[in-house]
């Protein structure tokens, strides 16, 4: 299950709760990744739109991959405005083995950046502007071409 929040994420609360879930279990690795909004190009915040049905399907596919390796994936993401220096994205892998967790978190975060149906907007002077220069087109997205 993906956790979606309005506004910035409470990193300490989310990670603490996820750690509590594995307390007393035989997990050898817990590897989180925290994405923080950087101050760049004059932005004061980022704003996010999420297409939840596709995101849930994408995440379910990743959960199956993790389960095959004996691991668990967690993910939280913001919807709406997230000011600079606060978090919009947290993911984590829990695994009996460190190498599995390290490899899986890297693959997951990279695929998230390339394929998760989340649209990012810069907020500059209170105006929401699509962040095209820092966005990645989703695989299969776009107009269909006509075959001759």
Counted beta strands:
7
Distance between the termini: 43 Å
Which architecture per CATH? Alpha-Beta Complex
When the domains are counted, the total is 1
Largest sheet: 7 strands, mixed
Q: Percent range for helical residues?
A: 25-40%
User: What value does the Rg take, in angstroms?
Assistant: 17 Å
Helix/sheet category: alpha+beta
Give the topology:
Blueprint: E1 2-6, H1 11-22, E2 29-36, E3 45-50, H2 52-68, E4 72-83, E5 87-95, H3 98-115, E6 118-124, E7 127-130
Would you give an account of this structure?
The chain has 148 residues and is an alpha+beta fold. It has a single domain, classed as Aldehyde Oxidoreductase, domain 3. The chain is built from three helices and seven strands. Strands 1, 2, 3, 4, 5, 6 and 7 form a seven-stranded mixed beta sheet that branches. A hairpin with a 2-residue loop joins strand 6 and strand 7. It is globular and about 50 Å long. The termini are far apart. The C terminus is likely disordered.
Quick structural gist:
The protein is an alpha+beta fold and 148 residues long. The protein has helices at 11-22, 52-68, 98-115; strands at residues 2-6, 29-36, 45-50, 72-83, 87-95, 118-124, 127-130.
Question: How would you describe this structure in keywords?
Answer:
148 residues; alpha+beta; Aldehyde Oxidoreductase, domain 3; seven-stranded mixed sheet; 3 helices; globular; disordered C terminus
């Amino acid at each position: 299950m993906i956790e979606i929040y309005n506004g910035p994420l409470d990193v300490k609360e989310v990670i603490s709760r996820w750690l509590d879930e594995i307390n007393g279990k035989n997990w050898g690795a817990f590897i989180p990744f925290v994405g923080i909004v950087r101050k760049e190009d004059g932005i004061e915040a980022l704003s996010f739109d999420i297409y939840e049905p596709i995101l849930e399907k994408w995440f379910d596919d990743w959960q199956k991959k993790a389960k095959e390796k004996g691991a668990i994936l967690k993910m939280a993401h913001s919807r709406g405005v997230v000011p600079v220096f606060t978090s919009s994205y947290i993911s984590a892998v829990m695994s009996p083995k460190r190498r599995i967790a390290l490899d899986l978190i890297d693959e997951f975060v990279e695929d998230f950046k390339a394929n998760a149906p989340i649209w990012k907007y810069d907020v500059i002077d209170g105006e929401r502007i699509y962040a095209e220069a820092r966005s990645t087109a989703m695989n299969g997205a776009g107009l269909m071409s006509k075959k001759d």
